[in-house]
Amino acid sequence: MKYGYFNDETREYVITNPKTPTKWINYVGNLKFGGFVDQTGGSLICKGDPALNRIVKYLPQLPSYEFNGETTYIRVKENDSYNIFSPYYVPTLDKYDLYECRVGLGYSKYISEINGIRTEITVFVPENDPRLIRDIKVTNLRTTPVELDLIPVVEYTHFDALKQFTNADWVPQTMESKLIEEENGFKVLTQNAFMNRGTSVNYFTSNHPISSIESDRKIFLGDNEFGTWANPLSLQNEELSNYEASRGDNIGALLHHLGEIAPGESKRVITQLGQGEEISREQNSINKYRDEKNVDEAFNSLAKFWDNYLSKLQVETPDEQMNTLLNIHNPRQCYITKNWSRDLSLYQLGFGGRGIGFRDSSQDVLGVIPNYPEDARELIEKLLHTQKRNGSAMHQFFASTMEANEGDSRERPDRPDYYGDDHLWIVQSVCSYVKETGNIDFLNKEIPFYEKDSEGNPQESGTVLEHLKRSVHFTRNDTGANGLPLLGFADWNDTINLPTGAESFINAHLYGKALLELIDLLEFLGETETVETYKTWYAEMKEVVNNVGWDGEWYIRYIDHDGEPLGSHKNAHGQIYVNGQTWATISGFATEERAETALDSVYRILNTKNGIKLSYPGFNGFDPNKGGITTYPPGAKENGGIFLHTNPWAMIAETIVGNGDRAFEYYKQVNPVYKNDKIDEYEIEPYVYPQNILGDEHPQFGLGRNSWLSGTSSWMYQAGTKYILGIMAAYDGLIINPCIPKEWDGFKATKYFRNATYEIEVINSNHISKGVKSMTVDGEKIEGNKAPIFNDGKTHKVVVVLED
Fold first, then answer.
1. For 673-694, what is each residue's pLDDT tens digit?
2. What are the C-alpha distances in Å from 522 to residues 369, 515, 519, 731, 791?
3. Are 708 and 741 members of one domain?
4. Can you tell me the distance from the alpha carbon of 459 to that of 178, in angstroms, rounded to the nearest whole number?
5. Domain identity same for 258 and 317
6. 1 burial class (0-12, 13-18, 19+ CB within 10 angstroms)?
7. Looking at 494, 560, 680, 745, which residue is catalytic?
8. 422 closest CA partner among 499, 492, 515, 505
9. How far is Cα 776 from Cα 112, in angstroms, rounded to an integer?
10. Is the pLDDT reported for residue 424 higher than 60?
11. 500-537 pLDDT, tens per residue?
């Protein structure tokens, strides 16, 4: 069954059946103010920290047909009662003549037709203006006039999200709503927790006279008579009660009498849900968005932002699904993931201590650097603020306070209190930013390390470059019995928590990759002495990895505290891990022969039609010495599941060895656009990557979960653009080095780089995967495959011809 289609012209995914297998969402606004809306109009909105300043109550665990957060009712008086329905399908569940949810860039638009009434609702957050706009247009499709009432509704939550679920007595006693009446029938319904009075207040209002309001859920539904969200009994009354709740389950319901609407006539109501310190201070902005022209202007401004963001790289390949993904949905997901980290989704609910992960965001930022570099730099600086003086990093932090902690390691005092990989990812982030922008001065910026003195002041600061150097220095000095970097509490795979003394090969490979990045950077800067030192360190670790890590057909993944391998043919479970093979290639530690052999083992043992499994075979029972990986059944998540984050690393590795066909095969089999025709197996949104898909050891092989906020989006964007298409920024130019399927005749791309536009055409008449025969720039031949930096605001034509 199909649930919708891609519309590349409008840059939307159009949901045509609201009964999707799971909730499908879209993000609006950002972490300053915003959240997500689902395919039937429900929302989860917060301002700032989602754990500490939640506005709307949304329970992801509820069935999709239940009211969740927000909705709108339309009622038509027929005989002696009202016919009530919702333009969002939920919660009234009526049969619709037309239903669409258009998942757009920073907005969702709902179009429905029922009972001769057409409704179009656009939901978005204006740029830099904290309020959720619902722009509602109602049109009479009947041949006779009709009188309509419109009732938008929001259900509030306590600002402390966790308390909503843990203290069923205290929370209701603190909630209160007040009505502010203005001239011309305008009203503002406010809501807040008692303790926040005078500091922050939620408000709900519109641009149309409001006849009456309701602020108490029990009264609105008619709980005593078993009224429901599908049929609120109060809507059978001519007016709502105008009750101002002083406790209980607070809602906001605004009754608008739209009057008689002639055939073909439309009326427009614009609601605002926001939060401010005092309503008097918000009145000017509230009035601003009661003006339709200002709302239209704000929506157009949002579109201009995305026009600019996406224009930085556009591609034209022979694969239309790849074009759809790389031109629209993948870079959009990169931006959303960078903004929200893992702080608020259907899966990470924004409370309980997740915060922003150092490792997560160091990778997420790589996906937005080409499109939005200065915004990326701001996040990089925040990350560097949570690096410790010894070069390691705090595992996660909270953007609102910049307080950091060690993450899950706090729960296992018998394990090390640091993650062995966190600090190494930031090296790639900084180097990628400098390559893209040429902002060498950023390396000299002084940024404090995380440790504070008794008065809360930083104990030490260092330049950005010093931070990077300390990253590799920490790992060099944090090695185990075999000379490999220690695992710490965990490496990238959070679920493998071996006893103290365990060593990690991916930490070794990340260390090698970080050294390669710094060698490249420092050669450009002319620090020859440090370059030679790092080359020595790199050679030393390469020798250790190959001496103790090769298992015959692949590289092992760990050596535990007893000196035993994990990820070896000797193991009954977890014999091979994909990361051990891909990162051996990416780090350059694998010899050419071993790289090809290891990657062939991945293809033979770990690849499936739905993506590459993280490991095989899965553990089948809990083992406290292995940790969290053994809490999942075989084929789920890290225990042999298709953990998508790792799949682009396999693509990158295959391009390094020149296997474009296999790299693209891997790319296609996890491209969510291709999943649109088998949603009943896959279930989740086909317009974003998930974190994981159940592997073939699981009975629900192919089922996806944990969509949107995943490092998969960043690495898939890099795998597609930098490695398959081969368009990669360097300190002194733009490298074009494709590794594409042999069947392609070539491709075109437009890339904005260093204040110039590069129109790129790659010609593959000989049908090979990799090998640049020639490059011309503006008709002149260039030696090698690196286009020069122009910085002239002009457009330049680059033609690349491939040949063995």
1. 999 999 999 999 999 999 999 9
2. 21, 10, 5, 11, 23
3. no
4. 48
5. no
6. exposed
7. 494
8. 492
9. 53
10. yes
11. 999 999 999 999 999 999 999 999 999 999 999 999 99
Domain boundary among 674, 695, 724: 724
**Total of domains in the chain:** 3
Supply the pLDDT for residue 403. 81
Which CATH number do you get for residue 757?
2.60.420.10
> Do 388 and 251 fall within a single domain?
no
83: three-class secondary structure by DSSP: strand
For residue 70, what are the contacts with CB-CB under 8 A and spacing of at least 6? Answer: 37, 41, 42, 43, 56, 134, 152, 153, 154, 155, 273
pLDDT score recorded for residue 369: 98
Flag whether pLDDT at 196 surpasses 80.
no
**What's 405's domain CATH number?**
1.50.10.10
Q: Is 478 a catalytic residue?
A: no
252: tokens are 């906001």
Q: Does residue 216 register a pLDDT over 90?
A: yes
Range of the domain at 322: 312-724
Q: CA dihedral defined by 77, 79, 80, 84, rounded to 10 degrees?
A: -40
- pLDDT band with cut points at 50, 70 and 90 for residue 635: very high
- Label residue 759 exposed, middle or buried (CB < 10 Å: 0-12, 13-18, 19+): middle
Asked if residue 59 and residue 48 are part of one domain, the reply reads yes
Cis peptide bond prior to 499, omega within 30° of 0: no
Considering the domain architecture, whether residues 404 and 277 belong to the same structural domain is answered as no
The per-residue DSSP string of 648-708 comes to HHHHHHHHHTT-HHHHHHHHHHH-GGGGGGGHHHH-S-TTS-EEEE--TTSTTTT-EEEES
CA distances 540 to 390, 450, 592, 597, Å, are: 22, 30, 18, 23
Collect all residues with Cβ–Cβ distance below 8 Å to 432 and sequence separation of at least 6. 366, 369, 729
- What mean pLDDT value characterizes the chain? 94
Q: What is the pLDDT of residue 575?
A: 97
Q: Of the residues 243, 276, 307, which one is the last residue of a structural domain?
A: 307
Residue 407 has pLDDT above 70, yes or no: no
- The answer to whether 416 and 409 have CB atoms below 8 angstroms apart is yes
Residues 386 and 303 in one domain: no
Q: Indicate whether 76 and 216 sit together in one domain.
A: yes
Per-residue pLDDT band at 350 (split at 50, 70, 90): low
Q: Which residues pair with 772 in a beta bridge?
A: 802
Are 631 and 578 found together in one domain? yes
Reported as a single tens digit per residue, the pLDDT across 445-455 is 999 999 998 88
pLDDT at 13 over 60: yes
